[in-house]
Amino acid sequence: MKNSVRRRLLKILCFLLPFLPVPLCAQDSIGRTGKGFEQFYWIESAYPDVTFNKTYDTDVEDWRIEMIVPDGEESRTTVLYWAHGRMLPKELLADQYSYWQLLYSYPKTLADPADFSEEQKEKIKHFGSDDNRRNSSGTPMYFFDALYDSGTRASLETKIKKTTFLGHKTSVHERIVEPLSRVEQKILALAENSNEVKNFVGSMKSCDAYYWRIIAGTTRKSFHSLGIAVDILPVKTGGKQIFWGWAKDTYPTTWMLVPLKNRWMPPDEVIRIFEAEGFIWGGKWAVYDNMHFEYHPELIKFNFLTH
């Protein structure tokens, strides 16, 4: 009976993982989630300008990773441990399983909520609950703070640069200025021959990126606080839902079931352009955020080049 229940739970989790924006605690038993140190390759290859010196620490039986991040004429050095894909400082290894893994399942195609079972609906509902969001440790930020110098607002803001995207002023981390510019160039080129993309560009109201803040309903820092997340807001949504939290106000218990046709989305070609340059799209999360793109080349590589 226990094995039967376990297999059933694993089947449910395997179905849900492509739709969730973060790993669940049970992912270690499923695989494909970066448990083995060989998965560090995808993080290392995503940031080729960073030096990663790796040694095995027998005292804690884990890989010690010295990150050396170029910073102008100097560099910043941070020591973290693999921690089954969580990248934590040594003092947090004993509590590592309370954090999510950095490498998680990001799907190539968009899931249709019409296909969710009742059990899956309940799991997604719990994931988006106020209690879960408030009490979950979430994504450990130590790797990202080392990479983007975002340990403090003062240090981070020395790396924030003003730019424009599709004619709209915004501010982003200096590390994503070039990939975001490539996204813009590809979209504008595509708009010359695609009315859908042309209309999308013309319908943009704003492009909001850097904003030092905590994620609503949590105690965790937003990736907007690092300047690597971009929100593209249209002038009008045509009555369609664009963000799960806003949909929840209207549909408290069924927000996750809003049909895809009733959600505002960028054109498929635009989403693919962002992904090709290392950005993930929040519309593929169970807690959908269809205006949101986030720079995570390690996730694109991990999911698109291995699965």
Sequence-ordered SSE layout with sheet pairings:
Elements: H1 2-16, H2 40-46, E1 51-57, E2 62-71, E3 74-81, H3 118-127, H4 130-135, H5 142-148, H6 153-157, E4 160-165, E5 168-173, H7 177-191, H8 195-202, E6 204-208, E7 229-234, H9 244-250, H10 268-276, E8 279-281, E9 292-295, H11 297-304
Helix pairs in contact: 2-11, 7-8, 7-10
Could you walk me through the main structural features you see in this protein, from its secondary elements to its overall organization?
- With 307 residues, the chain is α+β, with helices and mostly antiparallel strands.
- The protein is built from 11 helices and 9 strands.
- The strands form 3 sheets. The chain has a 4-stranded antiparallel sheet with strand order 6-7-9-8.
- A hairpin with a 2-residue loop joins strand 4 and strand 5.
- Helix 2 (40-46) packs across helix 11, helix 7 (177-191) packs across helix 8 and helix 7 runs antiparallel to helix 10.
- Mean pLDDT is 88; it is low at 1-34.
Summary, kept brief:
The protein has 307 residues and is α+β, with helices and mostly antiparallel strands. It has helices spanning 2-16, 40-46, 118-127, 130-135, 142-148, 153-157, 177-191, 195-202, 244-250, 268-276, 297-304, and strands spanning 51-57, 62-71, 74-81, 160-165, 168-173, 204-208, 229-234, 279-281, 292-295. The two termini are 32 Å apart.
